[in-house]
Design a protein that fits this description.
single chain; alpha+beta; five-stranded mixed sheet; 34% helix; globular
Amino acid sequence: MRQSHASSMFSLTQLFLEQCARWRLREEVVAFILEFGSPARACGATHLTVLERDLPAHLRGSSLARQSRGWILLLNDEDRLMTCYRRRHVTRFLRQKSKRRPSGAYRPPRRARVTARWPAAS
């Protein structure tokens, strides 16, 4: 990304730049998500996503609104764009993700599956 709206307001990680290039996420779409995206806090990061029902009426059917549908931008606590990814049902995904354990919480290791062993027939 060149000097753009996103890079002038937020610092960008190398992973974010690589993901944008990999998924061909345009700078205009990133700027649109940053401006009109709804923040959701989950797993120790802020997830920005555009919800069309929350957009102003004149933007709901726009091409940028359609292109930003399903994209999630991750911001850390220092307002640094960490990565981006796409999900089909964004609101459901974020709702489920926020119910998971918070970042840094201890999770005991899974136990190995114990299978019943029958004694060998003599």
